Amino acid sequence: MNKKLAAALSGGSVLLMALSGCGDDGDSKVNDWAKKVCDQVQPQLTKIANANASIQQATSDSSTPADVQKTDAAAFQSISDAYKALGAAVNSAGAPPVDDGETTQKEAVSELNATSKAYAGLKTKVDDLDTKDQAKFADGLKGVADELDKLSKSGDEALRKLQSGDVGAAMAKQPGCQRPKTSAPAGQSS
Prior knowledge:
This is Small secreted protein. By secondary structure, the chain is mainly alpha-helical. It has one domain (about 15-175). Helices cover about 75% and strands about 0% of the residues. The chain has eight helices and no strands. The longest helix is centred in the N-terminal third of the chain and has 33 residues, at about 30-60. The two termini are about 25 Å apart. Residues about 10-25 and about 185-190 have low confidence and may be disordered.
């Protein structure tokens, strides 16, 4: 059950990779827009990566149900806050200077805000888990992992659109949109 939660979190890392795409573009207006967004993105990507790492660590060691609950709830709240801040960053940057830029921006902001709400919902579900009954806790955590898996696979089409073409190429060049480097939880290696 804990491995499923950790696997679902790995799927959530897709956004981090999407935000660190690659490409090259010389359009200064697009680059200026990308800089506005990316300057605000890096702290949020780091927050998401660190929260995912804390959940993976809590589910991989022999933490008590209460410890797992506390770690997961804090991590989901942190991720929720980060997605909300990402939505605000894209919103405050205005529409990217490309065809359908306003639509692309609105869709991305809407999706980021919806993702924020979904993680807030997961935090509430984790808070409501019964930590005194190991079996009930495990079943509840499995349900949370299932929802997390669906969330990580859910439509991130608006974000992919934001990350495509000239905008994606410009964002890929910005240091703030590079995938953060976090220390992975201690794993088993031979």
